[in-house]
Amino acid sequence: MSISKKEFKRVTVKSLIEMKKQGEKISMLTAYDYSMAKIVDDAKVDVILVGDSASNVMAGHETTLPITLDQMIYHASSVIRAVNRALVVVDLPFGSYQSDPKEALRSAIRIMKESGAHAVKVEGGIEIKESVKRILNAGIPVMGHLGLTPQAIYKFGTYTVRAKEKNEAEKLLEDAELLEKLGCFAVVLEKIPALLTKKVSEKISIPTIGIGGGKFADGQVLVIHDLLGMTHEFNPRFLRRYMNLYEDMGNAISRYVSDVKSQDFPSDDEQY
Fold it and tell me: How confident is the model at residue 158 (pLDDT cuts 50, 70, 90)?
């Protein structure tokens, strides 16, 4: 049951800051299409992330790298049309912001103008400082993302836990402080030690959103397909499956096939 201290009719970046101050945890889930976003929003999830994870769960790619800016805008537009309450954040895809601050701004503007989204998310710290500054200076809210950054998977070479070593942990904390100083409204912390998440969450005034970051984050995010059990081969420690839709949907579809083959469907009552 929600322990919300205030009912937000429309969640904004300011709402999330307020939630952190009040000690209310922030709920965040991904969505990539109208129908799913409608369900997620009606369930009163605070933030909907139109993640570049669409590259994996919607398009079947091994990594998030192949998805394009045009494809992200398509998914974001579909989600926005369904949402009445949640804050909608859209990932800037790989290659659209890292090297050129001007290109970063153009990419962010396209997402905001063409999809109607409320904010963008970027991966990285000091390496993308100028891009973040350029986007924020245009009045576009930015959510950061530190720790395991999937767009840099070929640099890391693995999806294992990040920032276990002192040097990397110190850099992550510095990057989190930098993102706050630049003006980001929140930061995702992916697959890092729980005590480091605690340290970051206490050090910065903007909300931290964990995915594999432990219970000390100011909020949590999961990929909706993982939460619902639509995927079944991805089983990290941090994932809690609330349903097993892969099996349930498969059974329902098998019954449909059987009913068609046996001529049980459609029945007399199901025709005109």
Answer: low
In contact, 55 and 32? CB cutoff 8 Å = no
The model's pLDDT over 38-64, given as tens digits with 9 standing for 90+, comes to 999 999 999 999 999 999 999 999 999
**Angle subtended by helix axes 166-182 and 129-137, to nearest 10:** 20
Looking at 18, 177, 190, 247, which residue is catalytic?
190
E-only strand ranges, 124-254 = 142-147, 186-190, 208-211, 219-222
**pLDDT digits 0-9 by tens, 198-212:** 999 999 999 999 999
Buried b / exposed e across 85-108, counting CB within 10 Å, b at 16+? bbbbbbbbbbebbbeebebbbbbb
Q: Which two tokens stand for residue 207?
A: 């909300």
Residue 145 CA: distances (Å) to CA of 52, 153, 184, 194? 13, 14, 10, 16
The phi-psi region of residue 136 (left if phi > 0; otherwise alpha if psi is between -120 and 50; otherwise beta) is: alpha
CATH 3.20.20.60 residue ranges of the chain are 13-241
pTM exceeding 0.90: yes
**Judging by beta carbons within 10 Å of its beta carbon (0-12, 13-18, 19+), is residue 215 exposed, middle or buried?**
exposed
Distance CA(53)–CA(204), nearest Å, equals 27
CATH superfamily assigned to domain 13-241: Phosphoenolpyruvate-binding domains (3.20.20.60)
CA–CA distance, 230 with 249 (Å, rounded to integer): 8
Q: What's the number of CA atoms in the CB half-sphere (13 Å) around residue 110?
A: 18
Let me know the angle formed at the C-alpha of 97 by 12 and 57, rounded to the nearest 5 degrees: 70
Contact 121, 111 (CB under 8 A): no
190 is catalytic: yes
* Cβ 246 vs Cβ 236: under 8 Å: no
